[in-house]
Amino acid sequence: MLGLATHKELFYLVVLEKWSKSTFLFIFKEEVIPKDNSNFANTQSKRPKSEHVINNEIPYKKVFVLGPDNEKIGVLTKEEALEQAKENKMDLVLISIENNKPIARIMDYGKFKYDKKKKQKIIKEKQSVTINREIRLTPLIGQHDLETKAKKAREFILEGNRVKISVKFRGRERSRTELGEEILNKFFALVEDVAKITKEATLVNDRFLDMYLEKDKKKVGNLNNKDN
């Protein structure tokens, strides 16, 4: 009998214990739902990507259905499942295929895609690599040069980079670290509308006064709102 099975049917033989000198043979038949207008082999090799298959595009005659709140509804024909989705003013979305058993969920597919894109954006932002940049100053730098370097630092900051502002002292300048502090204060005033200090000015090896700046998202957001 097994030799008569088509690609659409699987047969299972179950032999029970002998009872009253007789052997009972049961045959169970399970239908495997293929894609429309294709054979079983094609179904196995060309399974659809569930995130892109919705409603009438679902190529299965029967699906296991989950409701809008992820509750189990059970196995329904595709037409029955589509009708339930329509009653909820939602879509029928193929979410997975486990052991050739398609599982679909009734949901607002537009909202699902929007939420997924939003989550991916958040994850990408968290995983983004911060690049360290450096702007070198001197205690006696002129105003024009200070503004030029502040403009470059602004570009780095808006790109999401971490910027070290370093004042280098030479010779007798090492005894006048307050000059470096003044320069850093003037510098920060030029980029304060988009930046925040993430590490206060610190003297390193008695030669450098370093301060670290990063983008202040709240300030940048307010700035963009004003421009709009």
Q: What overall geometry do the principal axes of the alpha carbons give?
A: rod-shaped
The beta-strand count equals 10
Q: For the largest beta sheet, what order do the strands appear in spatially?
A: 4-3-6-5
Structural class by helix and strand composition: alpha+beta
Report how far the terminal alpha carbons are from each other: 75 Å
Helical percentage: 25-40%
Overall CATH architecture of the domain at 132-225? 2-Layer Sandwich
Elements, N to C (H/E): EEHEEHEEHEHEHEEH
- What is the CATH superfamily classification of the domain at 132-225? Translation initiation factor 3 (IF-3), C-terminal domain
- Output mean pLDDT: 80
User: Biggest sheet: strands, sense, closure?
Assistant: 4 strands, mixed
Low-confidence stretches: 1-50
What's the helix count? 6
CATH class of the domain at 132-225: Alpha Beta
Q: Could you give the topology of this structure?
A:
Layout: E1 9-15, E2 25-31, H1 40-45, E3 62-66, E4 72-77, H2 78-87, E5 91-98, E6 101-107, H3 109-127, E7 132-137, H4 143-158, E8 162-168, H5 177-191, E9 195-204, E10 208-215, H6 217-227
Parallel strand pairs: 3-6, 7-8
Antiparallel strand pairs: 1-2, 3-4, 5-6, 8-10, 9-10
Pick out its properties.
228 residues; alpha+beta; Ubiquitin-like (UB roll); Translation Initiation Factor IF3; 4-stranded mixed β-sheet; rod-shaped
Walk me through the structure.
The protein has 228 residues and is of the alpha+beta class. Among the domains are: 53-109, Translation initiation factor 3 (IF-3), N-terminal domain (Ubiquitin-like (UB roll), Roll), CATH 3.10.20; 132-225, Translation Initiation Factor IF3. 34% of the residues lie in helices and 31% in strands. The protein contains six helices and ten strands; from the N terminus they run ββαββαββαβαβαββα. The protein has helices at 40-45, 78-87, 109-127, 143-158, 177-191, 217-227; strands at 9-15, 25-31, 62-66, 72-77, 91-98, 101-107, 132-137, 162-168, 195-204, 208-215. The strands form three sheets. Strands 4-3-6-5 form a four-stranded mixed sheet. Helix 4 crosses helix 5 (177-191). The N and C termini lie far apart (75 Å). Mean pLDDT is 80; it is low at 1-50. IF-3 binds to the 30S ribosomal subunit and shifts the equilibrium between 70S ribosomes and their 50S and 30S subunits in favor of the free subunits, thus enhancing the availability of 30S subunits on which protein synthesis initiation begins. This is Translation initiation factor IF-3.
